[in-house]
User: What shape does this take?
Amino acid sequence: MKSFEQEIKAYLGKNQIPFEDRTGSLEELDFALNDHQVHFDVKEKKQHINLKNWQGVTIPEKHFFILDDLSARKILLKSPRSFLVVRDNVSGPSYYVFSIVDLLCMPKHRVHRAIEKSTKAYKGKWYVDLRHGKRCASLDDVLHYMSHYPGKFKQIFKEHIDCWGEYEGEEIQTAGTVRKRKHWVEDLRTKG
Assistant: This one.
């Protein structure tokens, strides 16, 4: 099977979609589609993950993916038109697209993974449930989703005021006192 990076390059070339290949950079996201103003990083789930090695995992292995904290932060640099695309070679192949909004809003569990260097160090990791991303059957679906995502920006960033997204296993509680008109009037008065 081709690497996911090779598959993306072949797909974009075959479909004559102009792109910038940044896969050799440690600082940039893997690909930029300038015509769509989209940037994305690609990752692969290449094998089953032994959950015994990852304390506190509550995600079924079939849906479990591990993401570097640094990768998530790099995606943030190009927001809001930035994405993570994961190819699941174990259960698929299938593709999962995570917008920066998904990465921000979805429930997550973060851990430090010890690494051996001249001194003990740690690398940040996220436990990711693939079901929290947009599942796509093909790269056509992936590109369509990413290129049309900006059409949701008004709703995401201006209109929608409750918690964004519905994520597998998450139960959003109701908390705090009920805000009434008199509270908003008081807030405005104290600002001025």
In short: The longest helix spans residues 4-14.
